[in-house]
Every structure is written in C-alpha cells, then in structure tokens.
C-alpha cells in the first residue's frame, strides 16, 4: 500500500530513512559517525520500482546495495553533500557539519513523512561557529522533499550557504549538469551504472536568495545568502530511469522545472 513513511534505524547505525511512493532517502546518525569516522552529513538517495515502502526490508537483506526486486542503494555519497546536503561557504571552502546529533519524528504517514534533526555546532573558519535545526517533509505522490533549515551562529553577519549535488555519485564519470540560477535550480543526470542504469537528482532553492552557482572538488553548488536564526526553505528530488515515473533526462528536467513549490517558511 502506498504510504509516506519515516523511521529511525538504530539497527543500521542510526540511519534516518524516509520514502513515499516515488522516492527514498536517508541521512546518517551518531552511531555511524563512531563506527565509520568521520562519516558525513550528506543526503543519500535510494532507487525504487514499487509504490509501497521497501527501505526497511531492504536494510535487512544480505546487502541493501543489491536489487532484490523492489529497489536498492547504488548512489554514492562519500564525503560529498549527496543530494542537497549543505555547508557554509567561507574562504573558498565549504564548512560542513558532522552527522545529525538528535532527531524527532513529527509525522509517520500515511500521507506525509516529517521529521526534524539538529546538527551540533561546527566551525566556520577559525573564529565562527554555527549550528542547525532542519525539518524534512515528504508528501505522498511527490518526488520533492521539503527542507526547512534554521542556522544559528555566534556572530550576526549573513551566512553564505552552499547546497550541493555530488559530482560523481556513480563511479568516477561525471553526468549532465543543468543549471538555472534564475529559477534556483540544479539538476544532475548521472552516467549509467553498469548494472543499475542512471539517476536524476535535483535541488531547487528560492531564486531570491541565490548568490551564485559554482562548485568545489566534490559538489556542484548553489550558494544562498542567509541570515542567522532565520528559516529558509529548499527542496531535493531524485528519480531512477528504471523506476516507475521518468525514464529520460528530458522528461525528468521538465517535471522538476514545472513543479509548483513554495519557499515560505512555516
């Protein structure tokens, strides 16, 4: 049965997993940070070819990187931002948090999966610290997870927030990047994985906040101007060419552009 669901998975090193009838994602928690230091706060994307939740079962298989008929995880996050992780851009570098430090599940279906995480303070340069609270919301029937972030700081000056897409999530080859700064849009269509095909990933931000679009060694980045303590909203999305929805880059990009999204904080 199609549902939007979220689960904390202490049995898989504190993963937080969420999915609906179209997409599946996870972020990494405190246990994994200890098991596989330094771990990271990038956002993972899984692929699925069923309308019902499958991530919980997939985590219990011999390897969730294999396709047993419902989907799998073949997207590589590594040290990147994955699909829409963020950091603070300062001194030509992205300063990023560790894994989430605490969590609260707000709604576990059936039509909405929503949860909130906090990230412990991390340094930006040598004399500034920031910390973040972020709320994730995924509705049934949508490819887009809504992220509302509040980044506080021990200094009042504006922050430049970089939101990223991993440049090489499938092997070492680079895919096709589409940028539309006026629409606040980054899209990447990956090269085809030898066994599993290609994925599409996307980030959409409020165009009014965009400073520029650029990159670092690991990520394509859209950079926003943000005031400490004030919420801002952005969206992440993904698709699999072997899934149930969009099979080509052109169809996926048309969908991402056309989706009606609101950036007003709640």
Description:
The chain is mainly β and 266 residues long. The protein has a domain of 181 residues. It is 8% helix and 45% strand. The protein is built from three helices and 18 strands. It has an eight-stranded antiparallel beta sheet, with helices on one face. A five-stranded antiparallel beta sheet has the order 1-2-3-4-5. A hairpin with a 5-residue loop joins strand 1 and strand 2. The longest helix has 10 residues. The chain is globular. The two termini are 29 Å apart. This is DUF4861 family protein. It holds the Pfam family DUF4861.
Q: What keyword list fits this structure?
A:
five-stranded antiparallel β-sheet, 18 strands, globular, mainly beta, eight-stranded antiparallel β-sheet
What does the average pLDDT come to? 97
Radius of gyration: 17 Å
Order of helices and strands: EEEHEHEEEEEEEEEEEEEEH
- Judged by helices, strands and strand pairing, the structural class is mainly beta
What is the 3D shape? globular
Task: Please report the number of helical segments.
Answer: 3
- Spatially, the strands of the biggest sheet line up as 8-9-10-11-18-15-14-13
> How many angstroms separate the termini?
29 Å
From the structure provided, what is the oligomeric state, counting identical versus distinct chains?
single chain
What percent of the residues sit in helical stretches (DSSP H or I)? under 10%
Question: How much strand?
Answer: over 45%
Q: State the major sheet.
A: 8 strands, antiparallel
- Low-confidence parts: none
Number of strands: 18
InterPro entries: DUF4861
Protein name: DUF4861 family protein
Pfam families: DUF4861
Organism: Pelomonas dachongensis
């Amino acid at each position: 049965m199609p549902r939007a669901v979220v689960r904390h998975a202490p049995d898989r090193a504190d993963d937080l997993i969420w999915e609906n009838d179209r997409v599946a994602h996870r972020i990494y928690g405190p246990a994994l940070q200890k098991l596989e230091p330094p771990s990271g706060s990038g956002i993972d994307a899984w692929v699925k070819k069923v309308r019902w939740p499958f991530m919980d079962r997939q985590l219990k298989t011999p390897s969730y990187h294999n396709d047993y008929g419902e989907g799998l995880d073949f997207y590589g996050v590594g040290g990147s931002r994955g699909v829409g992780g963020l950091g603070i851009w300062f001194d030509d570098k992205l300063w990023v948090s560790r894994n989430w430090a605490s969590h609260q599940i707000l709604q576990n279906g059936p039509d909405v999966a929503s949860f909130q995480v906090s990230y412990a303070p991390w340094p930006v340069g040598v004399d500034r610290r920031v910390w973040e609270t972020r709320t994730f919301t995924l509705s049934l029937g949508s490819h887009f997870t809504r992220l509302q972030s509040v980044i506080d700081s021990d200094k009042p000056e504006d922050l430049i927030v970089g939101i990223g897409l991993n440049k090489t999530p499938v092997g070492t080859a680079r895919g096709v990047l589409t940028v539309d700064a006026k629409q606040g849009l980054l899209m990447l269509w990956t090269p085809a994985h030898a066994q599993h095909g290609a994925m599409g990933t996307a980030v959409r931000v409020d165009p009014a906040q965009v400073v520029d679009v650029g990159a670092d060694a690991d990520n394509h980045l859209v950079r926003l101007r943000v005031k400490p303590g004030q919420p801002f909203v952005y969206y992440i999305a993904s698709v699999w060419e072997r899934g149930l929805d969009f099979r080509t880059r052109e169809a996926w990009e048309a969908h991402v552009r056309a989706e009606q999204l609101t950036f007003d904080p709640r």
